[in-house]
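Usage example:
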Amino acid sequence: MASKHKKRKVVLASGVFDLLHLGHVKFLEEAKKAGGKNAELIVIIARDSTVEKTKGSKPIMPESQRRTLVESLKVVDEAVLGFENFDIGEVIEKIKPDIIALGYDQTAMEKQVREYVNKHGLNVQVVRVSKFEEDELSSSSKIRQKIVEKFAR
Amino acid sequence: MASKHKKRKVVLASGVFDLLHLGHVKFLEEAKKAGGKNAELIVIIARDSTVEKTKGSKPIMPESQRRTLVESLKVVDEAVLGFENFDIGEVIEKIKPDIIALGYDQTAMEKQVREYVNKHGLNVQVVRVSKFEEDELSSSSKIRQKIVEKFAR
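Running the assembly step on the lines above writes:
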């Protein structure tokens, strides 16, 4: 007999979420859907230091603001700052997700996640969310570019 | 005897909400608080055409994206696009708010609202929300400036 109260599935997503835009919200909505009804969506926000290491410079918005803004979205149950020294294994052990959702541009992260999950034989589903294509302003870099074109002299 | 089920107070706030940041969210949270427990927060999103008329150029993010993003915030019950020819009277007659909340920089709007409310003897409370001062990135113009300084060559 199936249990009357099914455990809520925990979906984990992560990202920088600098200059919050509709593409971010659509990604998070699709991620949560992967966990079915009553899924819980936990979002890891990349630390300023991690972004600086991987992209060469810090985000426009500081990490505390990025975290609070993401957590203020209806679709998000909890947003937490990542570890200073990012380690996917530590994140998985701590959050214990049922599903890890990855955005269209998170290919390096997907590789790390799949390797870790396979190596440790974990029962974690890895889901790829496709890009939201409504218009050209659903990427932080394109928003930055439009601002620079408009305001730089 | 007081009614057991008090009517939810409707709070109306408005703005452009281009480049959504924590200052916007804090403003909306304070606005909703003014309506007490169970308040309903309705947000009018300024049309691209209205912003172009009043500020000389359109916002970075198109109106449909600004509306959807604001409505995806936990604190917001409903976000609606403003009228093409903005008229505070029409807005008040349509939404019938108990409270109109104004941000620190909405002085022109405050004047219009107070004049309309007084002239028509309406029972609408006008509330001014003070500026959120956590740090320097709680304004769209400062975010734009930081982006331009960082990326323009």
